[in-house]
Amino acid sequence: YKTLESINFNIDEINSFYFFKIGRWDIKLNSGVLIRLPQNKYRESLENFIKVNSEIKNNYKIFDYRIENQLILN
Description:
Elements: H1 2-6, E1 14-20, E2 24-29, E3 34-36, H2 42-55, E4 62-64, E5 72-73
Parallel strand pairs: 3-4
Antiparallel strand pairs: 1-2, 2-3, 4-5
């Protein structure tokens, strides 16, 4: 939560959080978008999501950052 605040992520857009035993999180937004975060470097992934989401106006519902140095859109 503190990481989200520190990068000015709009907390009001978050519908739910999912924690996985392997130590990673998914964030589901009110718009239906799912952000799949990696175990490590999740802050960088969130910052990238903010940038990419503001630059591309589309209907992607999944932003998958689990593979290092890759973003998978679906």
